[in-house]
Amino acid sequence: MSAPLPAPELRPLGVDGVLVRFAATLTEAANQRALAFRDQVNAMNLPGVTEVASSLVSVRVGFDPAQTARQTVVDALQTACARLDDAVTAPKRRWDIPVAFGPDHAPQLTEAAALAGVTPEQAVTEIEAQILRVIAIGFAPGQPYLGMLPPHWDIPRQTSLTAQMPNGALVAAVRQLIIFAADAPTGWRHIGQTAFRVYRPDSDTPFPLSPGDAVRFRAVSDSEYVALRQNTDTNGGARCTVLS
After folding, report:
1. For a designed S-S bond to 173, which of 3, 188, 230, 240 qualifies (C-beta 3.0 to 4.6 A apart)?
2. Which fold does the domain 93-242 belong to in CATH?
3. Which residues of the chain have pLDDT under 50?
């Protein structure tokens, strides 16, 4: 049985925010509570609240000081914390996303697999078998942090940065995967490539993924990946299934 989570901490965050933190380090249970709390506060429709945004283990609640007082918001959040249980919140959507794991599109798969104690083929099989969660969106617009992989995937970041990771790169570290939203440097290892775009600024839904969504990856050949990338109408061949 896992240890009980500590009581949530409520802390001021600037002149117009309150941070509700459920743990000091990332665990699946703490992330689940953060996501459930975000949904609960959104459903409360608190007057003057302007934003309810979750991260890995915390939730920021923003408010307009001209419309409500900080203490009023804190009192409401303390009541919400007291009502929050540890039940797992089922995902409302599941995404199936094609990924190329061939050598041309996964230059660090062998290295990452070795750190996880598996072969590259086993690594791909394990990743395909996982139903991951979007545990947070951050660092770049729409960029998802996906977890949690099995414990042997608790591999460290690189000690130096890769100068540029391409848009759509699937990268791994610390039991998590990320799909890169834009060309950028990183210390995470490049283990696959998807044509799925997690940030589409010209779309009615610029951020297709949301915290709490389930994600499953499907391996495709390099040629299939190239075809998906060229077909701009399918967003990389990703499919979204509404679960509830």
Report:
1. 188
2. Cyclophilin (2.40.100)
3. 1
